[in-house]
Amino acid sequence: ETGVTQTPRHLVMGMTNKKSLKCEQHLGHNAMYWYKQSAKKPLELMFVYSLEERVENNSVPSRFSPECPNSSHLFLHLHTLQPEDSALYLCASSQEFPSANYGYTFGSGTRLTVV
Amino acid sequence: TQLLEQSPQFLSIQEGENLTVYCNSSSVFSSLQWYRQEPGEGPVLLVTVVTGGEVKKLKRLTFQFGDARKDSSLHITAAQPGDTGLYLCAGEEGPSFGNEKLTFGTGTRLTIIP
User: Which residue of A20, A93, B36, B110 sits 20 to 30 Å from the alpha carbon of B61, by its own alpha carbon?
Assistant: First the structure.
C-alpha cells in the first residue's frame, strides 16, 4: 500500500468515550501532521512531528493527545470530546519539516461526529 | 501568520465554461501551492509556484503567481465535471523557499454542472 492511510474513515463517539485515530504513511517521509477541517474554516494545523519528535502544538485542547511511535505511524487519541470537535481530521506527511518544497501528501481523513 | 483569502467562496458553472479563482494575501509568500480536494478525500497537490510572475500549466489548468508574490490565480478552461472539488491555496511563510511550513487558504468550492 502506498501514500497516507487513515483509519477509521468515519467515527461517531459520545462525549464520554475514548477513541483513537490512526495514520500510516509508506512514503519514507520524516514529518507528519494532524489537521482539523471544519465547514467554512481554513485547515487548522493541530500537531506536527518531525523524526518522531513533536515540533509544533498549536494551542490544541488537552482532550486531543497525539502519539508518534515511529516515523511511519501517527495517532490522535481522543477523550471527553465536545460536539464542536466534530470535523474531518486529516493526516499529512512531507519529506521534511518545515520544508514544504514537495508539498504535503494527505490521507483521506476521518469524519468524526461527537454526539 | 499570513491570512490567505480565496475568492469566490463558492462557484457553480456549466460544463464547458471557463473560470478563474483567486488567492490573496497582504503578505509576501516565498512559494505557493494549489491543492484540489474531492468529496470524501484529502487534498491533492496540483502545483507549486515559486517565482513572482511565474505561470504553470497543467492540461486545462493555468496557475499564475503574482509579480509581488502576494497573490495567485487558477484558471480552468472548458471546465468538466471532474474538476468539481474544493480548491485550496497554501502559502509558505517566510522569506526563503523550502524553509517554512504551509498556511492554508479558506478554499473555493467549485461545482461543474453537466
Answer: A93
